[in-house]
Amino acid sequence: MIKRLITGNKLLILALILMLPGLEGYAVTRTSTATGGTWSVGTTWVGGTAPAAGDDVIIATTGTGVVTVNATTTCNSLVINSGAILTLNRNFSVTTTTAITGRINFASSSGTPRSMTFTGDVTLNSGAVWNELAAGNGSNDTFNFGGNFTNNATTFNSVGTGVHTFSGAAKTLSGSTITSIGALTVTGSSTNVGTLTARTSLTGAGTLTNGNGTTGTLNIGGTATITTLTATAANNLVNYTGAAQTAKVTTYNNLTLSGSAAKTFATTPTVNGVLSMEGTATVVV
User: Fold this and answer.
1) Which residue, among 243, 232, 155, has the nearest Cα to 199 in the 3D structure?
2) Residue 116 CB partners (closer than 8 Å, separation 6+)
């Protein structure tokens, strides 16, 4: 009987210990220290424990300190505070929401290009800096944004040739300077796009630039409210891939109308290069 009581008490104590926050298997909030360091090292974090895949992460490092990801990493949610810096060198994914007021760098990588996946809503607040690599393997990284994307960043700098896919229901892409995206795919409905520039040089704040010096493709899969679309640069291609879309009247270098149903232009557009009709798409002017 005594042995059974002792065994039962041990099991009860073990169950209570496992219920305590911060232990393995339970999502907790991990906040970086003032000095920062490597993501996977315990001393980088308050409390001395590196984040697990299901943890919520706050990058609070300020000054010269940086938190650096050097191995494939997943977290539940991500917050980068004002003045804080997160540098990504490997595959990285966020399962739920991402909110950035500080700076996120996509630095040089070794080996194959990386995959950056932000499954939930992404909000770039005023003052935020989104900085992608200009050359090397990192310039071919792929970026997938599965939720709503709101860009009010001070700088959104994409100078690589990787593919950026925005597939959430609401996308505000015009909040800052955006340059040189290799291939941009916008699906669903897009609002407040503002000035949308496809494969041209940087023209200033509120401008979305697609590609730079190589073939750039802008795929529009939903209804996009575009104030200005500049798409005349050499090798540029704009492809309306959805169904029953209202297309922008402007001058295109190459224009493809694909998908299905009618692509409606208010007046006649100009195509300097190749006009391609694909799928079951039709044209209404």
Assistant:
1) 232
2) 88, 91, 92, 93, 106, 141, 142, 143, 144
Residue holding tokens 């597939």? 167
Q: Which two tokens stand for residue 226?
A: 């575009």
Q: Are the CB atoms for 101 and 80 separated by under 8 Å?
A: yes
- In a 3-state reduction of DSSP, which class is residue 17? helix
End-to-end Cα spacing for the chain:
89
In whole angstroms, how far apart are CA 165 and each of 122, 144, 193, 219? 13, 5, 15, 9
Contacts of 139 (CB under 8 A, 6+ apart): 113, 132, 133, 159, 160, 161, 162
Whole-model pTM: value is 0.70
Q: For residue 193, give the amino acid letter.
A: V
| Exposure string over 170-194, b if 16+ CB within 10 A, otherwise e | ebbbbbbbbbbbbbbbbbbebeebb
Return the SS3 of 85.
Answer: strand
Could you tell me the mean pLDDT of each successive run of 10 residues in the chain, 285 residues long? 48 48 66 96 97 97 89 97 94 97 82 87 91 66 85 71 71 52 57 43 32 58 69 78 87 91 95 95 94
pLDDT per position as a tens digit, 209-219? 443 334 567 77
Per-residue tokens: 273 = 């290069």
Q: Which three-class secondary structure state does DSSP give residue 202?
A: coil
**What is the tens place of the pLDDT at every residue in 76-91?**
999 999 999 999 988 9
Task: List b or e across 212-238, with b for residues whose CB sees 16 or more CB atoms inside 10 angstroms.
Answer: beeebbbbbbbebebebbbbbbeebbb
Q: What is the mean pLDDT of the chain?
A: 77
Name the residue type at position 177: T
Amino acid 48 reads G
Query: What is the model's pLDDT at position 4?
Result: 46
